[in-house]
Amino acid sequence: QKEVEQNSGPLSVPEGAIASLNCTYSDRGSQSFFWYRQYSGKSPELIMSIYSNGDKEDGRFTAQLNKASQYVSLLIRDSQPSDSATYLCAVNEGDSSYKLIFGSGTRLLVRP
Amino acid sequence: GAGVSQSPSNKVTEKGKDVELRCDPISGHTALYWYRQSLGQGLEFLIYFQGNSAPDKSGLPSDRFSAERTGGSVSTLTIQRTQQEDSAVYLCASSSEREGEQFFGPGTRLTVL
C-alpha cells in the first residue's frame, strides 16, 4: 500500500526559530509533492509544490526534495505564532499524475 | 478571483437519508476532486473529474456514493442511505491542469445521527 508518513507531533518551536517538518513516501514513481497548511476547523491551504530534487524557496518557506531517499521536507524560517497549524504532505501516486496521497499531518506549535 | 465554493457548510442528517453536497470549482479549472477527511485523519481521495473524460471513481467507498459534474463545472456528490461512518468533512478541490496544484474549498461537515 502506498503511504505518506509524517510525525504527528506536536512540534513545538519558539517564535523566530526554524521549524523543520518532514515527510517520507513509499512510491518511487511519485513526481509531484505538495505541502498544505490546515488550521483547526478549516480546509487545507496550498503552501508549496516541488517537482525536482533540491530546494525551492518561497518567502519564509523552503521545500526540500530528495527522491533517492524518498524524502520531502518543509522549513519555516522566522516562525510566527500564526504558523501554528497542521501541515499536510501530499504526494501523487506514481501511476496517476492527479491522485494525491496525503499524510496525516504534523501539528506545529509556535510559542510566543 | 473567487475560490472553490461548497454548500452546505454543515449538514446534519438521520441515518438512512440521502444527502447531496455541491461544489463549484474555480472558474476555468478543468479538474475537480472530492476528498473525505474524518476526524483526526488524513484526506481520503474519492473521485476525480477531468474535462469530458470518464471520472476516476476508484476512491468511492461504496455504491452508496456517486458524483456527477454537469457542464464541466459544478459537481454534486450524493450519498444514499447515509450511515454513521459517513460522518466526516467532505472537501472539494480543483486544479487548472492534469498535474496542477489543487485548491480546496471550505468543505461540508456531514454529521449522520
Write up what this structure looks like:
The complex is a heterodimer of chains A (112) and B (113). Chain A has 112 residues and is mainly β. Chain A contains no helices and 11 strands. Chain A is 0% helix and 53% strand. In chain A, the strands form 2 sheets. In chain A, strands 2, 4, 5, 9, 10 and 11 form a 6-stranded mixed sheet that branches. A 5-stranded antiparallel sheet of chain A has the order 1-3-8-7-6, with no helix packed on it. The radius of gyration of chain A is 13 Å and the shape is globular. Chain A starts with a strand and ends with a strand. The mean pLDDT of chain B is 93.
Please report the total strand number of chain A as a whole number: 11
Biggest sheet descriptor of chain A: 6 strands, mixed
> Which overall shape of chain A is indicated by the principal axes computed on the Cα atoms?
globular
Biggest sheet details of chain B:
6 strands, mixed
Low-confidence stretches of chain A: none
Largest two-chain interface: A-B, 23 and 25 residues
Let me know the average pLDDT of chain B.
93
Distance between the termini of chain A: 40 Å
- C-alpha termini separation of chain B: 37 Å
Radius of gyration of chain B: 13 Å
Percentage of residues in helical conformation of chain A: under 10%
Structural class of chain B: mainly beta
β content of chain A, as a range? over 45%
Order of helices and strands of chain B: EEEEEEEEEE
Structural class of chain A: mainly beta
Rg value of chain A: 13 Å
DSSP helical segment count of chain B: 0
What's the average pLDDT of chain A? 94
Shape of chain B: globular
Q: How much β-strand is present in the residues of chain B?
A: over 45%
**Tally of extended strands of chain B?**
10
Structure in a nutshell:
The complex is a heterodimer of chains A (112) and B (113). Chain A is mainly beta. Chain A has no helices and eleven strands.
